[in-house]
Structure formats: structure tokens, C-alpha cells
Amino acid sequence: MARRTTSSSTGSSPGPRNRTPQPLPRRRRSFGDFVKAFFAFVALLVLLVGVPGALATQIGWPLPSGTPSLSWLQQEITVGTFINVLTVVVWFAWAQFTACVLVEMKAALSGVGLPNRVPGAGPSQLLARQLVAALLLVGATAASFTPGLSQLGQQLEGNQRPAAAAAQQTPGGLLGQQQEQSASSAAAALAEQAANAASHAADSGSTAEGDDTKFYRIQPPEGRHHDSLWEIAERHLGDGRRYKEIYQLNKDREQPDGSKLSEASLIRPGWILEMPGDARGGDLVEMPDEAPKVSEEVQQQISDYAKTGGGDQQQGADRQGDRAGDRDTTQITIPEQRPSGSYDQGQQGQQGQQGQEHASSGAEAGDESGFGLPQALLGAPLLAAGLLGALGRRRRQALWQSALGAVGGRRGMMEPPTPTGAAADVQDALLVGADPEGVRLLDRSLRGLAASLAEESRPLPTVYAAWMSNGDLHLQLAQPAGRPPAPWQLGQDQTFWMLARDDAERYEEVDTAAPYPGLVSLGTMDDSRLLLNLESVPGIVSLSGSERDRAGVFASVAAELATNGWSDRMTITLVGFGQDLTPLAPNRLRHLDDIEALMETMEAETRQRRGALGAAGHDSVLTGRTGPAQHTRWAPHLVLLAAEPSADDAIKLAELAADASRLGIGYLVGTESGDLPGAAWEMEITSEGKLLAPLLGLELDAQLLPVAQQRAVVELFVEADPEREETGPSSAPPFLVDISEQGRPAVYARLVGPYEIIGLDTPDGERSPLMHEALALLLLHREGVHPRVLSSALWPRGVTEDVRDALVERLRDWLGNDPDGTPRLGTDATGRLTLAKSVVSDLDVLRSLYHEATQGRGINNRAVRGRLLTDALVLVRGPLLAERPAGRYGWLTHEIIDAQLPLLVADIGLALSTFHLEKDRAEKAIEALNAALGSAPGDERLWHELLRATHSTGDDDRLKRLAADLVSRSGARGLPPRTEALLDELLPTWRSAVVAAG
After folding, report:
1. How far apart are CA 258 and CA 214, in angstroms?
2. Does 569 fall in a domain?
3. Alpha-carbon gap, residue 544 to 671, rounded angstroms
4. Does one domain contain both 838 and 704?
5. How far is 552 from 709, CA to CA, in rounded Å?
6. Which of 874, 894, 914 is the last residue of a domain?
7. What is the C-alpha separation between 473 and 528, in angstroms, rounded?
């Protein structure tokens, strides 16, 4: 996989962002700064010294001098008593403010992170912070104090790297925190020394010898910027990914403050780092022997640190292990893959073998030519499968509502609108890119794991990520959790659980809650697909980059979470985007207008979930999803905030997210700068479509849903909305045939029932079933079939273009030409394969007959209507493509014809029954209804009409037998309420009659 290159320390192009943004420069102190510092000093002096002095001299001791008695409580409250009470309150307030000042001073002087919060001291601590900041603003340590400066009007401008210092050969010292007035004079000398050092290193080779040991002193924060191992490696080693070498050289060595480096993401100002021998360059690099301004204290610190070891360690250790990941760091690590066998994972096989070069090179453009398909959806098999499944359910719901929801008369068979333009391309991309089998295996595997752990009374482990590689599923745990239950196995180490595809296929459906519903696809790395568990992240996940690039990631995440197949009930709150995404899943997606509404909502929900967990006796939602607990209580809530929050809102959000992973709440927040307080994991999306998270060890080909495809997807769902108002009584069939004697087709295929073809010779050899299946697909899509849709339907695991094109040519030769020489298999202007009107199926005839009977000539001619409906019902010989070979026609699962055909047959049976009952021909009506029930046995409308027709015969025994048959078919669930009400009306004694018959 192509890697993104990072710039060297002397380059001009920025490297990938990480959780440490670029530093802000020191600002020259103005006269106003000194005035503010003076007044801050006076205010602190008055509040810290003046207040207690005044209380002690003017009021004295406010509490009783002796032990209070009961009579003391009965004394009259005087002005003196009231003053004493107020004095006690003021003493407490002074003590709290003093504590705030001490906490803020300690944090400001140490330069380590945000200061601790003093309980109940919000306004007091804010005041103390502002005063301390103003006082220290004129000193060298003021830049390390981040909170509150903006409120004093201090504007820090520009961008530069922090000063660095290194010691070579003999440890002697580092550039310490110098005063502002000496910084500019030292910078030129240090830069010159850096150039000399870089030249010397270049002359002596790219890698220094073992005795060229160098050291670096971690710099204090600049503004809101904190130094990081990534930036240190980028400045001095030329590649931020080499931060692991620095980590390995310094891990678990005692620092000057007595602590140790244990996680690569946690370093402190003032620490000493031993550097690899080839470290050089940087903005300001200092050779200690030649730096008279380095303090003796810092030189001694480096000397003492060098004695702890590591100077003679291998400088290039672990350089090649970029993806291995440190077990001591919180990283998302790509799993080790088994050699790929015969299985090519869903979309990977399709993309690699179907000629990906024909896909759209510009995902945003959507390829107006029509032959290419949106690459964003072709490369997102799980997202495409979720969208395709949700779209199918939406269309089926619309069909049923059309059939059952009509009032004041029956409605004709509703035909889903045929998408055109960008919507058609997106629908084809969903058909090509979807991997429903992968979704099914992922869902069964995760639920099966949860069920196995519950049987062993083991809790669910916290899972940070899931990887799908060569058909296998790898779960990366937050920490080791022992051996997994069979058939799961340990992966490359104790934090990986792995399930082979062959074992996953043996899982059956289990009735248990989805254990990890917050998993969502982010992209691919080295042919492995990453799903990040947003619900488990210990804090906020931030996403930086341009607004357009971030929008593609947010839309992809929202769409997959809303439609995926491995989650139960969940809530996805969208803020700052996605109002038009709600049609994808109105029950899951919720849009809020602003961050204020989000804060109010999440504060209430956080309190509620904490209380619910405590009342249930669970540590986290993971324990609440297993065992006898009602898992619906632990449905996840995932917040996608595209609008960058303000500083105050960011802090509030960080406080809410601190305990979010335990509560089943996840936060993905967009930021322009990449600097977001409280962000546990930071990612960046680049204009090249790369998703970077350096400290997590990730560099992915991002999964995106650009605006153009997003709009087209939403259009498909809006058109399929069952609540959408229709412009007419019904929709016309997609293809009407000439049902007269003159309209006899050249090729006639019977699909309703066993598959038969009339007018063509059966192809010889083993290719005959494949050609029959291809023709059936074309017959069910008279609007045309994209060649890639055809190939993905016939070869779900992938096929090369030459094989597909050879099949198309054989199919064209088999179908032949019309009398005028026109091929019966052609290609339209968009590149889709289409059939000529001379190639017809019985389903086309069935639709045309019903349409003509109910909306054509049969409306005003009763005799014509009866003949057309009778002819239509005769065509029904069973279910669609009955007796089709096993293992083929899997693409029918994406179609809605299996729902359309029974409804169409039921409508024909109901219309013909009404036709006969108008002339009191009850037996004919019963015959028509029974014929329709053969293909639509679950249609309640047919049973109701059959009960009415049977009742009209006056044969009560026959009606009782029919009622008993209905009860036996209903099973344990019993009869539907409307059927019971109809029986009560037609046969009040039906319950006793059924018992007697039973």
C-alpha cells in the first residue's frame, strides 16, 4: 500500500498531524502586559494576605471560645451572630481561593497539562487562573500556562517549531528555558551549529556510530501545544514514524523528576530523551560543549540520565517494525495475516478481478459518463451491504403499505420508481460493492462470542477495533482477557482474538444482544479493513482536515452506523451536518441544530446512564449486555459532531466523554486545527483520502461518502419512502408488452414457476446454467443492467473482465437478432445491457394484463376485465424461478421481486373475486381466491375475501372448516385481530366450532 511520505525537519511541506499540534511562538511582552501583571500581583496580595489580615484584626475569632451547649442554640440571633457566620463563610472562601491559586501556580510553573480542579471552585479557580496567568505572562514560564489566556485578550500568532537541544558524545547540557530577551541572539548561533552538525553527520554517513549518543530535553508547552515523540522524531530523524525508536531507547528509565516513560503518548516537559545516533537538524539544535548558555543543572541532569543505560543500545532497533506497535502504547495494530487461500474477501476479490480501472477515478464527480461507478461505494463493502439491505426493507415496506393501507378501494400494484442518473449509478455501485455475506458472518461471530462468554460467566472484553483480513476476523482488545472461547483463537499476542472464516461459517443464529454495536468501518490498510469501536474509546475521537474531507468521513460513519447489520437498537446524534441523512434510518438518526442542544441532551443522558448502571449493579454497558439483563437498556449512543466546538464547549464535552466508554456513549468530533482538549485519539483526513493517526500507528485508505454519492443515496431512500405522496393511483409497470395476437414475442421465458425458455435452443455444455441466470437477471431489469452488476451477480467472489465479456458475447449470440438485424441484447447510452422488446417473460405479460384490466381497456368494459384477469391468473404456476439450482441466483436476495410477485398475484385474485361476486358467482370467486393463495398464502386480504365468499354460499359447515383451517395455519401466535373480528361477524360460534373440529 502506498505510504504517505513525511517531510524532513528542514522541509517546507507539513507532515501528518498528530495529537500534538504546531507550537505557537513566544510573544514579546508589551507595557500593557506589565500593567496587567502589576494589578494581578496587587489583587493576589489583597486576596491572599489582605483578606485574612483584615478578618483577624477587625473581627477576630468568629467561633465560640468554649464547647456549645443546648442553651447556646436558644439564644437570640444578634447582629454579631450574623457577622460571625459571614466571617466563617469568608474564611472558607479564602481557603478555597488560596487552594486554587496554589494549584494554578503549580500547573503553570511545571508546564504539565491542565491544572487539577478544586472541588466546587469553578468561579474562584477561574479568577485565580486569570490572575496567575497575568502575573506570569511577563516571565518565561507564562507560555506554558494555557487556560484563561484568551480571556485576558492575549493573541498568539504565527507558527513555529519548539526549540530543541541535543548533546553529542559527552553529556554536557541542554538549552533550558531562557528569557525572552536572549532568545533571538541565541537562535542564530544554534541554527549555525545545527547546520554544522547536519553537515558533519552527512559526511560521516546516514547512521552515526554507537559513541555518537545524543540527548533531547522535552520542551514546555507553547500555547496549547505540547511536545510529542512524533514531532521530535519528525524534526530530528526525518520521519515521525520513527518515534518508536526513541521510545524503545528511553522506556522505563528514570527521569529527573523520578517518573518513568511508560507510554509513548505521555511525556513531560523537562524529561531527558536519548536519541538515535543519526538524529540531527531541527529548528534549534545545540551541541552542549559549544553552548555557554546551557545551565549546569541541565548538564548534570543529562549526565545522570546517560548513566542509566541505553547509550550503547542499537540505534536502529525496531525501525522496520512500523506496524508492529508497542504493547506499552495504546495503538490500533494491523493483525498478522494468514496466507490467503481460495477465498477472496467479498469486495476485495471483486475489485481486484473485475477491472477496477473502469471505476470512477473521481469519487466526488460521480462519473457522469455512466459507465463508471462511484468508487467510494465500490470500496466500502460493509457500508454498501447495510445501505442495500436498508433500501430493500424500505421498498418492501412501501409495497406492503401500498397493498394494505389503501382506504376506499384497492390500489393497483405499486412499482418502485426506476432510479436514473446519479441515483442509478449509486444503486449499481451498492449492488457491486455490497458484501452481505461478510456482514452476516461478522454479526453471527460477534453474537456467538457474546453467547459463549455468557455461558462461561465471563464478561465481554473491551474491544478497541476489529480487523477483517482474508476472510478472518481479528478483535483487538484494550488489554489481555485470557484465552477466548472456542472456536476463537489467540492472535499474534494476548490482545488479539482471531476467528477463521471456516469457523465463523459454522455459527448459527443466537438470541443475544449485539456485543459491539459501535464498530464502524474507517478504511483499509494492507488489504485489511479496520472497524473502530467508537463506543469503547476512552474519551473523544477527533478528526481534523478540511471541511469537505471531514464531511466525507462523517457521512460514511453515520450511514454505516444507521444501516449496519451487526447492531441492535442504537441512537446516532448528528450535529452540524446530516439533516438530510435522516431518511436512511429515521428511528436511529437524530439531528440537532447546535452544540448547546447537544450539551443539554448529553448531560441528561450521562446522568441517566450512570444511575441505571448503578441501580443494575453493572460496571459498564458490556456487563449489562450479557446474561439475563435487558440489553435494550444498554443501546449505544454515538455522537457525531462535525462543527468544531468552542473552547468552553470543548472542555465540557471532554468532561462528559471522560466516562463515556463505560456508559456506551461515543464521540467523534471534527476540528479544523486538530487541537481538541480531551481528545483521547486524534485522526486526520487528507485531501488524498488518507486517514492518519500517527500515535495509533494508523495510515488508512479512508472510507468516504462524498457529497455527490450522499445525495444520490438519500434520493434512493426518499423515493422508496412509504409515506411519500403518490401522484397517481398506481405506478405503471417498467415494461408493457403487446398482449394481442400480433404481439407474439420471438423469445418467451417463463419465470413464474419452473424456469423455461421458448424460442431458443438450450445452450450446450456447462455454461447453460450461467447463461440462463444471466438472462433471468436481464429480464427482471428491463431498464438495463450495468456490466459490473452482471458480473458481481453471477460471480460474487470476483471475475476478470475478459471472462465477463466472453459471457456477454455468448449471450448475445444465443439470443440472436431481430428480423431487421438488430441484436436482441444491446447496450444503451449509459453502457448498460438491455433486451429488445421481442424478448419477453411471463412476468412482463402478467404485469401488462393486470395493468390493462385495472387501468386500461378493462376499466370501462366488464367482459374485457374478466378475461384479462382470468388470463393473468392462469399464468401463475408457482413462486418465482421455482426449482432453481442450489448455489445460484443469490442476487435475488437484493431484489424485491419476491415481495412484489405475491402482492401482484393477490391483487389479481382479489380483483377477479370481486368480478365474480358482482354476478353472485361465489364458487368462481372461491376458485380464483384459492388459486391466488397458492402463490400468496400469507396475504390476509385473500383469506378475508375467501371467508366472505364462503359465507355468501350459505354453507355454515364449509365456513367452519375454513375457520378451523385458518386457526391451524396461524400456529401459536393465533389469528390476527382483524381476522378474528371478521369471524365474529360471519360465524359467531366459530370458537366452539373450531374446538369441536379439533
Report:
1. 21
2. yes
3. 5
4. no
5. 10
6. 894
7. 10
